[in-house]
Amino acid sequence: MTDEHVTLRPATEDDLSVLDRFLTDREVASGFQWFGWWDLGRWRREWAENGLLGDDRGTLMVVRDDEVLGFVGFRKVWASRFSFHWNMGIALLPEARGKGVGTEAQRQLVRYLFAHTVAKRVEADTEVENIAEQRSLEKAGFSREGIMRSVVFRDGRWRDGVRYSILRGEAADAARR
């Protein structure tokens, strides 16, 4: 599997069963995204409310041809009364990991957010131990900003995070690489 045919698209009702797997299967969620069982109706409620696309947050499916590989999510973060930026994340099915899919999907989400909103910044966070995601973000053009100490509680302990960001002008440069 290569990243050359990876695209993003809005979720369909049929995708809800794939999204549910990230909430119910520890192996699918990955060690870095498994927070125990909680809110198993989340995806279906959001689907009923807005089809997983709203003004302040959204979920798009990562696909290659007709195969669902995972999803990307984004949420608006207000920095002041007049300015906001986006925080984004990704979750891939186990068979799609380590093949460049995440890098390409994150590049596409950044292009999408900058093309359709006035935001100047997109940020992403991951755990310090998630080296694969850090490399993926760097390949997608993100810059490492710093460590957030004890920011995530998962699997019985607090963990440090790493914040990355990309600015509007940098995204065009990253796309040419």
UniProtKB/TrEMBL annotation:
<dbReference type="InterPro" id="IPR051531">
    <property type="entry name" value="N-acetyltransferase"/>
</dbReference>
<keyword id="KW-0808">Transferase</keyword>
<comment type="similarity">
    <text>Belongs to the acetyltransferase family. RimJ subfamily.</text>
</comment>
<keyword id="KW-0012">Acyltransferase</keyword>
<dbReference type="InterPro" id="IPR016181">
    <property type="entry name" value="Acyl_CoA_acyltransferase"/>
</dbReference>
<feature type="domain" description="N-acetyltransferase">
    <location>
        <begin position="6"/>
        <end position="169"/>
    </location>
</feature>
<dbReference type="Pfam" id="PF13302">
    <property type="entry name" value="Acetyltransf_3"/>
</dbReference>
<dbReference type="InterPro" id="IPR000182">
    <property type="entry name" value="GNAT_dom"/>
</dbReference>
<dbReference type="GO" id="GO:0016747">
    <property type="term" value="F:acyltransferase activity, transferring groups other than amino-acyl groups"/>
</dbReference>
<protein>
    <submittedName>
        <fullName>N-acetyltransferase</fullName>
    </submittedName>
</protein>
